[in-house]
Amino acid sequence: MNYKHLHYFLQVARLGGVLRASERLHVAPQTISAQIRSLEEALGMALFAKSGRGLALTDAGRMVLGYAEAIFSMGAELEEAIRDHPRQGKLLEFRVGVADAVPKTIACRLIEPATQLPEPVRIVCREWKLDMLLGELALHRLDLVIADAPIPSDVSVSAFNHHLGSCGVSFFAAPGLLESRGGRFPANLDGAPLVMPAEDSAVGKRLRNWLHAHSLRPRVVAECDDSALAKEFGRRGMGVFVGPTVLERDIEKQYGVRVLGATYDVVEEFFAISVERRITHPCVTAITEAARNELFATPLRRRQRGR
């Protein structure tokens, strides 16, 4: 059996079409179609049937998909085992993807323990949309993805969520803006200029629901995918912005802002997503243990605090 053909079949099956697989693999659609035809000829059965503008698996295709996932999963485990095997004088390369919704300071704090292992480690970081990073993870081009949400239900990848921890969110403002917002928190958010997280981000959805539940109507002056850009807007006094409560001191010091208030009813969650069900990679082990035992060790308190 030609495993390259099987690999193309797996990507088309997961992504639902040749064109999507072509974009993901950077291979011409005609090449992928030809490879799948060769696989079907070798197996003596059709694996796909047309379904609207896309493709749907046949009964035989679903059976082959199960075997293909198992084959490539085992291959990934082999690569992990070989890469993690102690090698005298060799540098351990750790490839990590960070979803663009994850605050950069959180990402650095999470990844930092991987640099403190006894053996030398070279870290390769990629920042992208979560679905794109999961595609790279499925192709074993990444060892880990750090995200603010678990694997979406509509994304078909053979990977596992490892919950790192949760925290509340704090609202920050430049000193001048803070002085202009009188009253108690969270009422002082009503009518305030607000730099909002992206609508499709996990924290953005929770924050909008929280504002609605408290009948608060801030004036949204910007909406940012990039949390670093939101903080820069906030530093310049354009509006109030949110950040993880566990980073209050870091954010105040770095951006010269102050905390307006905090809520533990809007939860920011963080996940390590890997192809390993049981974590064995030393860098991933270091990250998960430090996150759970240090960064997010304080129990999540269900209360509000204002300043």
In short, what is this structure?
With 307 residues, the chain is of the alpha/beta class. The chain is 42% helix and 25% strand.
Describe this structure in words.
It is a single chain. With 307 residues, the chain is α/β, with parallel strands linked by helices. Mean pLDDT is 88; it is low at 299-307. It has helices at 3-15, 18-25, 29-43, 59-84, 104-111, 130-138, 175-180, 202-213, 227-235, 248-255, 282-295, and strands at residues 48-51, 54-57, 92-99, 121-128, 144-147, 160-173, 193-197, 219-224, 241-244, 258-274, 304-306. The longest helix is centred in the first third of the chain and has 26 residues, at 59-84. It has three domains: 1-82, Arc Repressor Mutant, subunit A (Orthogonal Bundle); 90-163 and 268-292, D-Maltodextrin-Binding Protein, domain 2 (3-Layer(aba) Sandwich); 167-266, 3-Layer(aba) Sandwich (D-Maltodextrin-Binding Protein, domain 2), CATH 3.40.190. The strands form three sheets. Strands 3, 4, 5, 6, 9, 10 and 11 form a seven-stranded mixed β-sheet that branches. Strands 1-2 form a two-stranded antiparallel sheet. It has eleven helices and eleven strands. Keywords: Activator, DNA-binding, Transcription, Transcription regulation. Residues 1-58 form the HTH lysR-type domain.
Q: What's the overall geometry?
A: elongated
Radius of gyration: 23 Å
Number of domains: 3
- Summed up, the helix count is 11
Q: What percentage of the residues does DSSP assign to strands (E)?
A: 25-35%
CATH topology of the largest domain: D-Maltodextrin-Binding Protein, domain 2
User: If you average the pLDDT, what whole number results?
Assistant: 88
Q: CATH superfamily name of the largest domain?
A: Periplasmic binding protein-like II
Q: Terminal Cα separation, in Å?
A: 66 Å
Q: Characterize the biggest β-sheet.
A: 7 strands, mixed
CATH architecture of the largest domain: 3-Layer(aba) Sandwich
Classification by helices and strands: alpha/beta
The portion of residues assigned to helices is: 40-55%
Please write the string of helix (H) and strand (E) elements. HHHEEHEHEHEEHEHEHEHEHE
Number of strands: 11
Which residues form runs of ≥5 with pLDDT under 50?
A: 299-307
- What is the C-level CATH assignment of the largest domain? Alpha Beta
